[in-house]
Specification:
With 297 residues, the chain is mostly helical. It is built from twelve helices and four strands; from the N terminus they run αααββααααααββααα. The N and C termini lie far apart (49 Å).
Length: 297
């Protein structure tokens, strides 16, 4: 009987510890500075961050790219995720303020104090500057409202237990720099706002980025081919800084080939960034350690 009692107490304590360890960790209101937003800068943040690519209707063109009703499906080894509505409608983020957006981007926490799944790339966005978040919030509020309900994710057990994301965050969520770099703006754009590593870095069995192979290429989530190695040890080895910057603007490689697959969307977004930011990205990519292509899983 004593052994059973001790086992029950141990199990209860373990469960209680797990509950607290997995709890969402939103920003305290005192941690948010309440910056005034700037609309023009907010548009730049929106474009470089690639918000439309996931939250617009798939294949949307022109002004339709700014209708962010969500609904795109993203198949992963953990199940299928559906992009939410982030338009300024009642179905979207009409009730959000800048602190709500900051919690989503920096901590992966919703206004209802629940975890977001890391299919939303807050693992990279956690490095964003508060001013950029305030600017982005102001810009998002100017976009057309779309009255479309969010589609629930289709996830098997145990991945449908949202609380478990708290343990994922304990293992993988960090705002620390990933690569040593003397290019601070480029590092911010690649590691944070541009979230390049989310596609170009292989992942471990739990879905965390393998930082030892940072930007060394990864499987294509669409199932065709590979996402290329962006380090100086990959296909960009012979590209100059100017070659990379021009590619990010035009989609043309030095060999006069063109971007394909999901990179077309990325180019469309980065073409609207400033020339200085595209050069900063290029300088960062040429300065990080050269790695061989990450092996196929």
């Amino acid at each position: 009987m004593r052994l059973r009692t001790k086992a029950l107490i141990a199990a209860s304590l373990t469960g209680l510890a797990a509950w607290f360890l997995s709890a969402p960790n939103p920003l305290d209101r005192n941690e948010w500075q309440g910056h005034a937003g700037n609309l023009a800068r907010g548009e730049q943040v929106f474009n470089i961050g690639g918000c439309a690519s996931c939250h617009m209707e798939k294949g949307a063109k022109g002004e339709a790219r700014l209708q962010l009703g969500g609904g795109q499906a993203f198949a992963t080894p953990f199940g299928t995720f559906y992009a939410p509505n982030i338009s300024p409608s009642e179905s979207g983020i009409a009730s959000w303020n800048a602190l709500d957006l900051a919690n989503a981007l920096l901590r992966g926490v919703s206004p209802k104090q629940t975890h977001y799944y890391p299919a939303f790339p807050y693992g990279s966005y956690t490095r964003l500057a508060e001013q950029d978040i305030a600017d982005l919030m102001l810009y998002l509020k100017t976009l057309p409202p779309v009255d479309q309900a969010n589609h629930p994710h289709d996830l098997p057990f145990p991945f449908n237990i949202r609380r478990s994301n708290g343990f994922w965050k304990l293992l993988f969520l960090s705002d620390a720099p990933i690569a040593e770099s003397t290019e601070p703006r480029g590092q911010y754009l690649v590691e944070g706002l541009g979230h390049c590593g989310e596609c170009h870095t292989p992942r471990n069995a739990l879905g965390g980025l393998d930082r030892s192979r940072w930007l060394a290429g990864a499987p294509n989530p669409e199932g065709k081919g590979r996402i290329p190695n962006l380090t100086p040890g990959g296909s960009l080895a012979n590209w100059s800084v100017e070659d990379i910057a021009y590619y990010l603007e035009s989609g043309f490689t030095p060999e006069f080939d063109t971007a394909g697959s999901t990179m077309v969307e990325v180019i469309e977004n980065l073409a609207q960034a400033s020339p200085e930011d595209r050069l900063a990205i290029a300088h960062y990519l040429k300065a990080i350690p050269a790695l061989a292509d990450a092996p196929k899983p």
